Amino acid sequence: MKGLVLVLLLLAGPWGPLGAEPYLQAKGGYVFSFPKDHQPHRGYKTEWWYYTGHLSGPEVRYGFQFTIFKIERENGTAFLFHCALTEPQGFRFDEKLQREFPGLAGERDGGIWVEDNGLKIEGNRHRLVSHCQGANLELELSHARAPVVHGEEGLSPKGENPTNTTHYYSVVDLSGTAVLESIGQRRELKAQVWMDHEFGSNFLEPNQKGWDWITLNLDSGDQMMLFRIRQEPGPDFYWGTYIPKTGPTRTYRRFTLVPQGSWESRKSGVLYPAGFVVQAPEGTLALTPWLKDQELRTPLAGMIYFEGAVEVQGQWQGAAVKGLGYLEMTGYAGPIQARF
Fold it and tell me: Which end of the chain is more exposed for a tag (fewer CB within 10 A), N or C?
């Protein structure tokens, strides 16, 4: 879901409307196969590998985002890197954009790279290397649970139009170690990470202005991926996946995301919700950002959006719960569809 940021890129040269040939379309009946599907899928207009997570050490914690996007257009392929780091003293972010070229951007040594930022997946092990505005981060991660496929029949819908879909899965239990070098300090940290991988060629519809996307990790062991796409006129489009501690994963739509208060960025002037409450038959969860300012202003992608770590607290299935999550908010700086 979060990788939709990438379709805002304007590479030099013309291309057709969304869904125009020769791009491949996400179609029902797609069967994921791992580790093959961790690798790039050529022929789709947009693809992304999106990691968000929480790093912890003695009396310190961080949130981070690491993303590589692949953009295919009629005149060539480019790779975009976005990173962000939520740290005790503030928030930093960075981006890199390169056309695909050996040694500069694209596939290399079994991994995917943009300059010196990259990821490599071997079996159930993920290695990330990120250089984010002076902060260097390396992660060694592994997972035990099989990847979680979102949607139905291999399709994740993004609206009522049946062609507005992607192929989308997540690895929800990545954990391991991180080494962070920042402000002259080197820290060895524990890491809990969520990875998204999504690819397709059709995204927002004309009346869809932006989205709010969250992942939730509750101390009960339950996890969720939830999003709403804001539509004018409404109603908004809601979709999600419920990943219980025990039992089968299922599509989950019986929820709403209710904005709480507002926060205005001094740097961009954009007004965002200050948080959200998830309301569902199972209970109510309040989502509070670690920092108010976790806003990325990315000139290469041409977009302003919020991507940040959140605290989770509330009642769920009759018990008090806490947890951590990640929240993305887009379209508050202006309609997203206008940039396609």
Answer: C
DSSP structure class, residue 338: G
CB 198 within 8 A of CB 48: yes
Residue 282 Rama label (left phi>0; alpha psi -120 to 50; beta): alpha
Place of tokens 């013309």: 14
Residues 128-170 pLDDT 10s: 999 999 999 999 999 999 999 999 999 999 988 888 999 999 9
Which domains are seen in the chain, by residue range?
2-339 (2.40.370.10)
Of 279, 203, 200, nearest to 240 by C-alpha is: 279
Please provide residue 5's backbone torsions phi and psi, each rounded to the nearest 5 degrees: -50, -40
Cβ–Cβ < 8 Å for 260, 238: no
The DSSP element (H or E) to which 283 belongs, if any, is strand 283-289
**Token digits of residue 231:** 């539509």
Between CA 267 and CA 289 the distance in angstroms is 18
Decide: 338 and 209 in contact? Cβ < 8 Å. Answer: no
In the predicted model, what is the mean pLDDT of residues 270-286? 97
89 pLDDT band (50/70/90 cuts)? Answer: confident
Structure confidence at residue 304 (pLDDT): 94
Which residues make Cβ contacts (< 8 Å) with residue 262, sequence separation at least 6? 271, 272, 273, 274
Which stretch of DSSP H or E encloses residue 177?
strand 165-182
**Is the pLDDT at 8 greater than 70, yes or no?**
no
